[in-house]
Amino acid sequence: MFNEEMRSEQPLRWAMVGGGRGSQIGYAHRSGATRDGHFQLMAGAFDIDADRCRDFGTNLGLSADRCYADYLTMFTEEAKRDDGIQAVSIATPNATHYPIAMAALESGLHVVCEKPVTFTVVEAEDLKRIAQKHNRIFGVMYGYAGFQMIHQAREMIQRGDIGEVRVINMQFAHGFHAQEVEKNDPGAKWRMNPAVSGPTYVLGDIGTHAFYMAQLMTNLDVESLCCTRQSFVKSRAPLEDNAHVMMQFSNGAVGTLWASGVNAGSMHQQKIRIVGEKASLEWWDERPNQLSLEIQGEPARVLERGMSYLHKDSSAVDSDRIGGGHAEGFFESWSNIYSRFGVVMKAANRGDQATIDATWYPDIDAGIEGVRLLERCVDSADNGAKWVKYHD
Ligand code: NAI
């Protein structure tokens, strides 16, 4: 089992930028990173407000002198210490990812960065180049990709269990922003501001998750796409609160992605349906322990996490923490990803490329593809929903 034993090596000394008190996703990072003993929180620039950062960090058990007013001071001061940080996670609003990640890499740190990693593909490729130059790991927090049944689906598709893939349906369409909630919600407000959110809202905020998981499962490359996007709450323009994307894949398959914050009444509706020539697979993040398998002409089946019929050599099995029947969820998915970040970062520290190559994790290439999706969708949608090439 991938997670069963704490690694004999020391935990990586780890810090966070962002993810302070009241943030949406800070706790998920701390929970995921520390669960299996790969990371130990030593420092933080958790908040845009220095006093709040210190108060929050000391409440978490950090010494006050390692709760920093800003990330640059943290990287500089930590580099002077014998026990300085080795890795950092960036959980700040989107506009800040690029400068913070660049400064972290230049300071010799491994990086875990939130999505979308940057505003442009050029910037994301820049981060890849600098990470390679410094021999640092760059992980991207596609937090749903650690669910075991995603990896069962991936293994089944790669083995040809459903035949050639024909149709890929991706959606992440919640209803939480059906009204203009950003008036009273700072976490929603920055998402509707292009200067902070970037060129998209729902496509980048949630569409990138479904897109990455479909890529992970099918390993298919997009050839071209056509996007239409709307701002149903008018004040959100030019950013979209709803978008539909049609895609053509290199093997002849076609797909759609629906990203929405105005799907009234819906909690998440993050679903991926992969239709092959013999059978279809469907996964839903509100029932993550199950994978639906529908073989043409046979009764539909539901595959359950933790069962002996799952493919043995996939992350579906080696990420298992407790047997079938017990529900695993979001935090386990994050821990599964963070454990892999820990494994590859430690491998990089000891120059063990073989372990890095053998370990799946959402890397900077996954981050680049997410940003490329957004660039191409904007190009298409803002030019009359024309079909555009996915690659240059
Ligand atoms: P939020 O607005 O709830 O929290 C942002 C936090 O960052 C706050 O504590 C704020 O004080 C701090 N901050 C802002 N600028 C900072 C700076 N320059 N230095 C240090 N701290 C700073 O934002 P939320 O919702 O937690 O999102 C953060 C990032 O995580 C975004 O990029 C978002 O797209 C991503 N996200 C990813 C999710 C996932 O499933 N992987 C889920 C939710 C958000």
UniProtKB/TrEMBL annotation:
Gfo/Idh/MocA-like oxidoreductase N-terminal domain span: 12-141
InterPro entries (alphabetical): Gfo/Idh/MocA-like_OxRdtase_C, Gfo/Idh/MocA-like_OxRdtase_N, Gfo/Idh/MocA_oxidoreduct, NAD(P)-bd_dom_sf
SUPFAM superfamilies: Glyceraldehyde-3-phosphate dehydrogenase-like, C-terminal domain (SSF55347), NAD(P)-binding Rossmann-fold domains (SSF51735)
Domain of life: Bacteria
Domain Gfo/Idh/MocA-like oxidoreductase C-terminal: 154-389
PANTHER family: CONSERVED EXPRESSED OXIDOREDUCTASE (EUROFUNG), OXIDOREDUCTASE
Protein name: Gfo/Idh/MocA family oxidoreductase
Species this protein is from: Marinomonas colpomeniae
